[in-house]
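Two proteins follow. First one:
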Amino acid sequence: MYDLTTQATTELPIPVHSSANMQKVALSYDASIVMLQTLLSLAPDDSGDRSDIYQLNTANGTLVRLPEHPSHNKTLGGVTSNGSEAIYTGVGGYDSKGRRYGAKIYNFAKGSTEIACFGDNYQSNISSNGDWIACDTGARSDNTGAYIKNRQTGHETQSSLTNSAINSVTPRLGGISNNGTLVWGIQTSTPGASYDSNNSADVFYHNFAN
């Protein structure tokens, strides 16, 4: 872990054998919490054949595994600024209404899980203050693309981008602002789309307030 201010490097107590073992990393605001998506077997019941998500406390070295079903590959979406909550996709299963779980939020302090999105979500993210989430909805019955959701009110706002465009964007969804208006990330090439003519990956943002 590298501090841009002090230029100091801190070695984390995680054995990394190759770049493939560590799939994604997210930090809390003060870097006291590091979220890891990895194929490494860091828990006694972790066989290493599926990606799992762990919370590492850099102050005391405590490592907590997200208690999701071990047969599912989990994809880390993001983490709140204090590191207490993480959003992730690839959870599997259905609710009592037959809706497929798309993304969940796990609160490490409370040990509780919250359903964030439904559908075959490719990616999700959470604002640093924890008030907003962003999800793609590739398999929803209304065939919509990405949307944002206010966790306090439950209100959803759909993106004006088309579903086909969003599906090429959301696998690299970068984040969502604290007021829920901006979503950003890396957009893969979408040949033929009116907004993308260079046939290359681009950094994008979408303003939900417009």
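Second one, unrelated to the first:
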Amino acid sequence: MKKNICRKLLAIVLTVAALASHAQQRPFYVDRGGRRVEAENITANEQGDLRVELGDGAISTIRRNDYRFAFVPKPDRVAALEELFNRGDYGRFLDNVQPVFSQYRYLGWGGRLYYWKGEAELSREQPEAALSSFSTAESFAISEEERESIKMGKTKALLELRRDQEASEILAELKTADSPRIAAFSFAAKGRMLARQQRADEAILEFLKAVLLFEPQGELREIREDAKQRLLALLEERGDPAYDRIRQLD
């Protein structure tokens, strides 16, 4: 058990150290031993083998099983898709994501691209497709933050599909995350499950936690607002006098 914990801690430390180089905007890969190798350019084939240009004409081929992950600075094609996603142009995003994913999935962008894909599919009321996209995204995520976002997406898709038990299992995993965003999401997601199970009192309590314990800023704003609207619906249905007080909250 101690060895497993040590290995996990070492993997986290190595990943954080490697990802810190994102700011340097140089391609790199992390080998099986955790060593970061910077390069002039890195490309990947369909099998995930890397072609690494080290400079001065030196080129190396790294097989998929011989490295943990690779990263290249955000390519223009990824940036263009991100812009489509951020402005809610999900149709064009979904029409164009697959070839970009195929090109960059092994270069640090597969997890993010398919996370966006899953969120776009959820917005278009396609939870089955979204769940499949989030599952694929998990295979390519290169940071704990990405993995947490993907788990949140999977939970939302499972809730839409009324697969509450599977959603509960993911929420149990997320309990250890030291993140206000994850905590607020967990309260709100649990509230949705309880509301659907006609356990209104418990659902109200979970929604209240999401609304009252967190400030409406950044990524928390959307989570908190969704919980607030679901809370208001329950309070209105019951004719609860707390409705007006909650409605007036920012």
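SUMMARY FIELD: The two ends are 46 Å apart (CA to CA). The beta strands are 28-31, 36-38, 41-44, 50-55, 58-62, 67-71.
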